[in-house]
Amino acid sequence: MTPLLLRIRDLHFAHGTSPVVRGVDLDLAAGEVVIVVGPSGCGKTTLLRLIAGLERPTRGNIELAGDPLSDGATFVAPEQRPLGMVFQGLALFPHLTVNQNIGFGLSKAPKGERDRRVAEELRSVGLEGLGDRHPHQLSGGQQQRVAIARSLVLRPKVLLMDEPFSDLDARTRRSVRTEVARILREHGTAAIIVSHDREDAYHLGDRIALMDEGRLVRVDTAEVLRHHWQQHPFDA
Amino acid sequence: MVNVYSHRHYDTDKQLFEAFTEKTGITVNVVLADDDEVLARLEAEGDKSPCDVLITADAGRLGLAKSRGLLRASRSDVLNANIPANLREPEGYWYGLTMRARLVAYNKNKVKPGAITTYDDLTAAEWKGKVLVRSSENVYNQSLLAAMIAHNGHDAAAAWARGIVKNMARQPEGGDTDQLLALAEGIGDVAIVNSYYVGKLLASTEPEKQKAREVIAILFPSIGSFGTHVNVSGGGVAKHAPHPAEAIALLEYLSGDEAQTLFGAGNKEYAVKTGIPAPLELQAFGTFTADTLRLEALGRLNADAVKIMDDAGWR
Amino acid sequence: MTGTPRSRSSYRSKGLFPLISLIAVLLAAPLLVVITSPLHRAAPEWPHVLGTLLPAHLLETLVLLAGVLLIALVIAVPSAWLIASFQFPLRSVFRWALVLPLALPTYISAYAYAGLLGPTGSISRWSVAHGGPRPDIVSLPGLCVVLALVLFPYIYLPTRAAFMRGMRTQLEAARLLGSGAVDRFLRIALPLARPAIAGGALLLCMETLNDFGAVKYYGVRTLTTGIFRSWGGLYDMGSALRLSMVLLALIAALLWIERRTRKGARQTTDQVPGVPVRLRGTKAWFATGWCSLILLLSLGLPLGRIISDVFATLDRPVWSDVFPAFGNTVYVAVLAAACTMGIALLFTYRERHGERSDVAIRVANLGYAIPGAVIAVAVMALAGAIDRQGWMSFALIGSIGLLTYAFTVRFLAVGTQPLYGNLRQQSISLDESARLLGASPWRTFVRVNLPLLRPALLVSALLVTIDVIKELPLTLVLRPFNFQTLSTTAYELASIEQLREASWPALLIVLCGAIPVLLLEKLLARPLR
């Protein structure tokens, strides 16, 4: 059995008095891609933000490669977590070039090394030659890849992605999805991808977690759920 | 009624206008404005102007108003009797109503009474870094310099201005009262100020002016042999005045005993009418010989004075 | 200004447009008078002014601008960042309190500081008495500090808004990329906030150039005082008008610089405000301390001085003057705000639904760049000419209508800018849908644009009201008979060296101005949509 990378136990989060995440348990193995699917408002984005450290859980643990990220005693700041995140809307830095965006997290590395790694990453996501452009000069799909490259260049243990394809039209969506799958596989990075679209789940995930009203109602492999949905198309 | 444009901002004026209304039944409407805006307003209004009386705080502006055709000549035996000839315009265009001397205040503990007799003395080497005076922006300094030009000529006046700048204790800041307060703090030894500011300081009961009250004395310097520079605050009837008779009535009232005394008691200004005693606070310092220069020269030479001060670096 | 070329309505415009253009020309008239003055006005003293006056005044103006801007940036930007990003003791108070200095006119603060730290001020005297140095704030450097302390909210407000709204996800993304607080501030927040900072800096510079009361009292020679000196001391209106042109050229340069700054930056779309991070320990106290210090210096000291002066003069009968002045101030402010907002709305309508941008409207919006005193003089000249011709049955000069007109000329841009900004965010397709359904441009404006404009309308009205309450030179020159406002009363008392009595109208101005400022703050704090 592949080693357990991320361990989430009994995670709770409440906004004031209304609970948003109610006791989530989730495991992630190295290199695995899990898709969290659910309707809007079910708490999946919040779940992602809790893992990233952008919110503090009210209860529960998050452990990465044996080290606690968040439990009763400790809370590791997002800056220190070896995680990457691609936000909904991508959050590219509009005032920086593609190269500068990708190299942003490498500011402590010497210039030569930084340039090398940026160029390498640029190549691996298929954006060679576009390094000096600004984000607004790229297509939606290209921007998507910059966002991923920006996180991956730092070699995170897990990549978190929040609705990565929602801003794209149907055709771009398909091709970008395939691209993302390939990139993740080549890098061997584990990922948790949040989406409201089942198609993403079909095509991307090793395992699929269905979320509703703050809980994971079902977690299974892609094949099983694919089969289930074919039988019961209108289930969650 | 009578409409007054004034740039005197003193409480005494208000009291006097109210007293005038009580006595004669004529209402007084007042527009207060800053120095030059009053003149500009009059000019812009032209013959539609509702102004009856123009009152200024210095003679220069009165001369200017006349030269720009903003005033009319008005005859009044009362005014001619009350006001000495050199303090009013000969054809009756304007009449001085109060007099102020620009004198030297000094720190009793540091300066001997006889040390300064002329304004020129202030430019001597011994006063380097000791002279306090306000900015050249202010019309009282401009008038003083204009009087010097009139008496001694352009070059002598320019030399005096340069001499003062060299001797300044600090770059000009604040008004006349600020110079007096600085004097008390030891920032300078002598200050050029208007007489009524000294009077007001001495009459004030404010605690932080206490120190100033204790150390300040005044002397009356002279322009050469001509006497101490004086200026008047005065008024004239506007050229297109809708109520000329009431205007003259107001001016006559202001030149009368009652008003002249109140100027002294309330605002510490010297009267123009002979026979009215000097303000109480200034009496201790004695009398002085006033310069008898015709004050219309002040307006004529004002621009030259400003230019001289600009060139001398008097801020 | 109202979107890309594609967004200009291509429908034929009629009806109100000619009238609106006429109004715009009327409002642009004073500026035109100034600019064409060499053609219709001789300037006999110009050689002297050019050779002696101009170099000194221009230099000091530039030094003053640089000084005030620098100090204000140091005050405003870190404060905006602290308030936007962190949670620390008293933050919720500082958030609106740091806007309050807007209610304090520059000259009032300058007088108060002179009374405290001038050569004979109370703090100075105390220092000397205890063997310390004698501070003298009444100087160019001192003025830079005093003005910066009063005017920094012009930068603080838009910068805080940019930090809070314009970059949340970028900042979070940066965190996930390993960027610490300082690094985020320098590499993400500041660059993204640059247009907002530049916009605020521009307003601050214009306010500094417009100031007359404080500059005069502190003996600093700016172009504005030079204009008065030419007009008053040299009796040369022509030279004064030419100096005005130099001043306008300087302002044009500033406008150009601001536009260049804005161009280079890329914009992010409006975002949900971020969640402030709670600070702990020394960091929290540092933040609280910093904000407290600023409040103390910009508000606490001057207000304290004013209030103590009020108590010191309780026995003097100032109230009988102050009460009518208070009424007049309110009257004039409401009138001017109503007129300005009405016209601002008409202009907004024209800009949105007209084919081409109206040049006259653009020129009319420049009134804010012209110092109040210059507008007053130009308006006087215009009105005087009309009065002399006898075209109207009543005299224009001295009428409240003329004063209102002058205020509108001066503060139009304060009214239109928030409206234009709001309008930019209204998609043109809203208009086009309405037009397709058969609505006329006017109806579209009233039914579609106007309801969405409402928050901006309130902001504009409040800004104009605050400005009119504080305004000085224009009011001094153009007011009617027996008409004192709080600002003219304060100024006159100070100029006859009755600074302590001036504290009464000063205090009322601050209170009057504080209410709209607080309302404004509440409005701006509300999340959009």
Q: Give me the oligomer status.
A: heterotrimer
Secondary structure tally, helices of chain A: 7
Instruction: Assign the structural class of chain A, choosing from mainly alpha, mainly beta, alpha/beta, alpha+beta, or little secondary structure.
Output: alpha/beta
CATH C-level class of chain A: Alpha Beta
CATH superfamily of the largest domain in chain B: Periplasmic binding protein-like II
Biggest sheet architecture of chain A: 6 strands, mixed
Low-pLDDT residue spans of chain B = none
Shape of chain A: globular
What is the highest CATH level, the class of the largest domain in chain B? Alpha Beta
Number of self-contained structural domains of chain A: 1
Strand order of the largest sheet of chain A: 6-7-8-3-9-10
Helix/strand order of chain A, N-terminal first: EEEHEEEHHHEHEHEEH
Rg measurement of chain A, Å: 18 Å
The N- and C-terminal alpha carbons of chain A lie at a distance of 29 Å
Explain what the structure shows.
The complex is a heterotrimer of chains A (236), B (315) and C (529). Chain A has a single domain (4-231), classed as 3-Layer(aba) Sandwich (Rossmann fold), CATH 3.40.50.300. In chain A, 32% of the residues lie in helices and 28% in strands. Chain A contains 7 helices and 10 strands. In chain A, the strands form 2 sheets. Chain A has a 6-stranded mixed beta sheet, with helices on both faces. Chain B is of the alpha/beta class. In chain B, strands 1, 2, 3, 4, 5, 6, 7, 8 and 9 form a 9-stranded mixed beta sheet that branches. Chain B has 2 domains: 2-99 and 231-277, D-Maltodextrin-Binding Protein, domain 2, CATH 3.40.190.10; 100-228 and 293-312, Periplasmic binding protein-like II (D-Maltodextrin-Binding Protein, domain 2). Chain B has helices spanning 11-24, 35-45, 59-67, 77-82, 139-152, 154-167, 176-185, 195-203, 210-215, 244-254, 257-267, 280-283, 296-300, 302-312; strands spanning 2-6, 28-32, 53-56, 95-107, 131-132, 190-194, 216-219, 230-237, 270-271. By secondary structure, chain C is mainly alpha-helical. Chain C contains 23 helices and 2 strands. In chain C, strands 1-2 form a two-stranded parallel sheet.
